[in-house]
UniProtKB/TrEMBL annotation:
This is Neutral metalloproteinase. Keywords: Hydrolase, Metal-binding, Metalloprotease, Protease, Secreted, Zinc. GO terms for biological process: proteolysis. GO terms for cellular component: extracellular region.
Amino acid sequence: MDTGQSQPGRPGHPVRCGIVPPHLLDHLARLDDPVFAEPARRTLERDAAQRTRRRITTVRGLAAPPGPRRPADEEPKPRRTIYDARGKEELPGRKVRAEGAKPVKDASVNRAYTGLGATFELFLAAFARDSIDGAGLPLDATVHYGEKYGNAFWDGERMVFGDGDGEVFRDFTLAMDVIGHELTHGVTQYTANLEYLGQSGALNESVSDVFGSLIKQYELGQTAEQADWLIGAELFTDKVEGVALRSMKAPGTAYDDDVLGKDPQPAHMDDYVNTSSDNGGVHINSGIPNHAFHQLATALGGHAWERAGRIWYDTLTGGKLKPDADFAAFAAATVGAARERYGSGEEETAVRESWAAVGVQVAQSAAAEGPGDSGEAQPVG
């Protein structure tokens, strides 16, 4: 199995991945109250325009190549640059803080800088991965994007943060797990390159939630039991009846608000949502693999990045997972990865039981095939 030390190549097709689910923004955009509807509509329009630009870039073959490789004798360290869009939609904006520079007066700039560093540190310390491409890729971010822009996204090259509308969403740099989530889309882009559609797209989103949560837990020194397992807990204003965008511990319970509606995420295959919106429900059905990981991390105990996170990382970077992998394929791959790294024991058993708890069974023969063969796994329920 590849453990993340393999030579990185060009990234796979980049996808524009926003942290706020389109269904939530669409719900706000349909409200009669312009205070909520107008910022949401503008955010959706910008998101659609960004996705179109990314598709055109990919079709034309103009996607940016990986950044300059770090010299072999140079110690891995982050190379961060923060830009300020100053309320405009032009990227990257004005350069405001470079690697090693002192904090500036703008808290958003400093939070973005810290979040990029925390993401770099988790992947290096826990998985010996040098930046998101494995070869020291510089990390860029832009803050203050657009007017009342209610999202944050990875565009294939950089992190971009909005300031929120002040009614529903606050500044998106406030949530470290959001920063980690978006940058992990970059890791996926450079490794398994999971297609952003249906179950593989939900896995793409879930992997980002997993590592976004691990980055926050690592920064806080938390065990799996101490962690809140919430994604974006800092983003809602006090006006919202909700604790976060998503809950990995209890999908479907993150918010229940008169304006936003109720969190639609399922925790089990019995409640899988078939929809044509949101690329086949990638932000909704990600609750199922999210919950499987939470089950595994709490079953194994201790720091979640050590064993549970290692198994997920090995699966993502092993080079055998197909881009269109569904939940059953990914489950079988994690069982194989657990057995390959830890042998047939506690970890493998815990992985099987965690997937079974969300309605995905992995046959005993699947682990013997390793993370590349998923034919024995079947969803149940």
